[in-house]
Amino acid sequence: MSIESSVKPSVARVVAFSGSAKRPSRTRVLVEALGTELGRLRRIDLTVYDLLDAGPSLGATQRDDLSAPAAQMIEAIEGADALIVGTPVYQGGYAGLFKHVFDFADPVRMAGMPVALTATGGGLRHALVVEHGLRPLFGFFAAHIAPTSVYAGSDDILDGRIVDQGVAARLNAAAAELAALLAVARTAEADASR
Asked: Is the peptide bond before 24 cis (omega within 30 degrees of 0)?
């Protein structure tokens, strides 16, 4: 039996989250580009959030204290069929408020979620943040992480466009892997409901 024959034809809900505190940002360009490429490979309903969409209540320490926009963003992340995340790299690590968003996420709802990881930074010395910071974070959630991650330095995105062919190739690979992870997750859901 092929995957397609056992999967519901519904559109996958994909959330792309840019953890940049600026708008526009290279981080948003990167997560949107991955979402666009994923949309070429399969039908998706893509929603893109910026950190700024949460508003000032994101500084809350309890989920119940979040404003409606921040709570809705967290719920959208938890309710997605797949997640594309991106963070700017500061001082060799992911952004603190990026991490704070996921401090509110329910690990039970994140378990098994297909996730693609991206990051932006000033140069190559920040590239390993994806592997040493983001991958362990989403490993904690028991997410299904696409093997290919995407890092873009300051010269790789110009005027809102990805200009580096290596970054573009990694985006294509990550999108294909995320599409495959979505197909597997959908098959597992279909098998579990039988």
From this structure: yes
Across 1-12, b (16+ Cβ under 10 Å) vs e yields eeeeeebeeeeb
Token pair belonging to 170 = 């990694």
Residue 110 in tokens: 């994140």
pTM of structure: 0.91
Query: Residue 88 gets which letter from DSSP?
Result: E
- Tell me the residue type at 110: M
Amino acid present at 131: E
Nearest to 127, CA basis, from 95, 164, 94, 173: 94
Q: Which residues, 6 or more positions from 126, have their beta carbon under 8 angstroms from its beta carbon?
A: 89, 92, 119, 151, 153
Residue 76 predicted with pLDDT over 90: yes
Amino acid (one-letter) located at 8 = K
> Is the pLDDT at 117 greater than 60, yes or no?
yes
Residue 167 Cα distances to 6, 158, 173, angstroms = 34, 13, 10
CB-CB contact of 88 with 55 (8 Å): no
If you compute the radius of gyration of the chain from its CA atoms, what whole number of angstroms results?
A: 16
Q: Is the pLDDT of residue 92 over 70?
A: yes
